[in-house]
Design a protein that fits this description.
- The chain has 20 helices and 28 strands.
- Strand 9 and strand 10 form a beta hairpin.
Length: 602
């Protein structure tokens, strides 16, 4: 028989189990209510206490370095100085008239008034205490509860650290990337610059943005109402730095030539001047300098018209520097030889009615083809050019690069203008033999002489050596294949003729560099007036050559736009000689071991 004592423990067990089940049922009901029935309401409630945040992680824009690894452009972080006006101004209210509690250098908490703190901030930012106070009071006048104002934008790391050391609870310093150019204006015409927001605006910064641009990342997290990040909620999308752009230029040589061209431009009272150095065997540009170069650190200090490269964008009729192309065409096709002779008066009227003049009056003489180059005679070149079929002459101009630009593919780089033979008038038939009636750029002229100096093989001009991405992958530019423009023997013969221009011409004494054979040509080009004619009394002068002529290594060209103190190509002699001497010295080029073979001139 079961007694009452036996039934009591069992009853207690049943009761306890029932209570547990009831509690569990209540939890389940509540859980369903939270996660299903009223889920949206509870999500809204939770956002009152914890909010999601996303912080940008900036990748560094890639460096630009010269051929030797010298940094020409790099990235750093700048900081905006932001302030919580409501917290900063607390020390000026009746509620807390003593001031704001901050830590001193020893870590001890002290009370400092807002005017005193504003003075401390101003001493670091370079502002006046009154200016800092006004930023806060003006903001509060608009919005009494404002928690945001900017004291100063884009301060350097040194200022940021000094401000952070003040340990003021109402200051914050969000970082953002900034571009710096350690060498200032050196190669500024090539490097270009970026805007205040980091957008590339000019030069290689823009053209090579695909190499230099970084990929920004982000850090997302949850934080409580007190702003503290909730541990374990962080999710990082890592940033990727931009690549390193290596150039072909030598920054030391670039600096020298920029100084030289600035001095010479001022001496000659020219609009601007420039110089370019090209390595003969590779086509690599080792310097492309010009006067008035922009400093990428402060492009606004330079007039807008001077912030880009004139050297790479200015087009002109080349004049006498293209006379060797006519000679190359005649030699390559067998139309004449270096000793072919023509009568050379200072003025000639041709059968088609065209009239050609030399730049100076002189007695009639008999000139060889070499002499036509040495004397730079328009009349003689016209007669020699007439020995060649006009379409063939145009074809060679195009093969040398007229009308097709260069491999630099520079933004807004002119390709050069020319006319088809069918549209040549009687005058153009002859003027094309001495560099008129078509246009080129400075790099195109340099390319012609690189081709001649390199045995007739045209190498594509280049400014970029490589791009090394953040993962170490190295990519070289995709350049056109070298092109054999004229026969090697033609180039050798023409090179000797151009040596004689330096050795027997009027500039021989002014440009000669002891120990080195040199070859080249001057040019005094008329400047278009934009209305089908030419400007009166002003010219675009140039002098281009290479050395050592017996084993060519470097082409140098100097140009001046409208030099008023010397309006002829003789204006370029000083700058060319100094530039070539610096190149030969800088690269330790060995002198020639033989003399220039002199050819008959007349």
């Amino acid at each position: 028989m079961t007694t009452r004592a036996d039934r009591s423990p069992r009853r207690r067990t049943v009761v306890a189990l029932a209570v547990v089940l009831a509690v569990l049922a209540a939890f389940v009901v509540r859980l369903v209510d939270i996660q299903v029935v009223n889920a949206n309401d509870h999500v809204t409630d939770s956002q009152t206490f914890a909010t999601g945040a996303k912080q940008p992680l900036y990748g560094a824009r890639g460096e630009i370095v010269d051929a030797n690894g010298t940094v020409l452009a790099s990235s750093t972080l700048r900081y905006d100085v932001q302030i919580d006006p409501s917290l900063a101004i607390k020390g000026m209210t009746k509620r807390d008239a003593d001031g704001v509690a901050v830590e001193d250098d020893s870590g001890k908490t002290v009370v400092v008034t807002w005017p005193e703190l504003a003075a401390r901030i101003a001493r670091i930012t370079g502002q006046s205490a009154a200016d800092v106070e006004k930023i806060v009071t003006d903001k509060l006048a608009i919005d009494p509860g404002s928690q945001y104002a900017v004291v100063k934008s884009s301060v350097a790391t040194e200022e940021y650290r000094a401000l952070a050391d003040l340990k003021l609870p109402f200051l914050s310093f969000p970082p953002h990337p900034s571009r710096i150019y350690p060498d200032g204006a050196v190669a500024g015409n090539l490097i270009g610059f970026v805007g205040s927001d980091g957008t590339p605006l000019e030069g290689l910064e823009d053209l090579q943005n695909s190499c230099l641009a970084a990929e920004d990342g982000s850090l997302t997290y949850q934080r409580g109402a007190d702003g503290v990040i909730i541990p374990g909620t962080e999710v990082e999308d890592a940033a990727v730095d931009g690549g390193t752009l290596k150039l072909t230029i030598d920054s030391d040589l670039q600096w020298f030539l920029q100084q030289l061209m600035s001095e010479e431009t001022q001496r000659l009272n020219a609009t601007w001047g420039g110089a370019m150095v090209v390595e003969v065997k590779t086509g690599k540009i080792r310097a492309a300098a010009e006067s008035g170069t922009v400093d990428p650190n402060d492009p606004g200090a330079t007039p807008a018209a001077d912030r880009a490269s004139k050297l790479l964008r200015f087009s002109f009729e080349p004049g006498s520097t293209f006379k060797p192309v006519t000679i190359a065409t005649g030699l390559d096709t067998g139309a004449f030889a270096p000793d072919t002779r023509v009568e050379d008066p200072d003025r000639m009227e041709f059968a088609n009615g065209a009239v050609i003049n030399d730049d100076e009056k002189h007695a009639t003489e008999t000139l060889t083809a070499t002499g036509a180059l040495v004397r730079s005679s328009n009349v003689a070149l016209s007669q020699l050019g007439a020995m060649i079929d006009p379409q063939t002459r145009l074809d060679y101009l195009l093969r040398f690069g007229v009308g097709s630009g260069t491999a630099l593919d520079w933004s807004a780089e002119p390709k050069g203008q020319y006319h088809q033979v069918a549209s040549w008038d009687s005058q153009t038939y002859y003027t094309t033999t001495f560099g008129q009636a078509f246009t080129v750029t400075v790099p195109q002229v340099a390319s012609v002489y690189q081709t001649i100096a390199n045995g007739g093989e045209k190498m594509p001009l280049s400014l970029v050596e490589s791009c090394t991405s953040a993962d170490g992958t190295v990519a070289e530019p995709d350049l056109p294949a070298p092109e054999q423009v004229i026969k090697p023997e033609t180039a050798h013969t023409l090179s000797t003729m151009l040596e004689n221009v330096f050795a027997q011409g009027t500039m021989a004494a002014d440009v000669a560099i002891p120990g080195y054979r040199m070859a080249g040509k001057t040019g005094t080009a008329q400047i278009s007036n934009g209305s089908g004619g030419y400007k009166d009394g002003v010219y675009f002068t140039s002098l281009v050559g290479y050395a050592p002529a017996d084993d060519p290594e470097y082409v140098v060209i100097t140009v001046f736009d409208e030099p008023l103190n010397n309006r002829m190509s003789s204006a370029n002699r000083i700058s060319f000689k100094k530039a070539m001497m610096q190149v030969l010295t800088h690269y330790r080029v060995m002198p020639s071991d033989s003399a220039t073979p002199l050819l008959p001139v007349n």
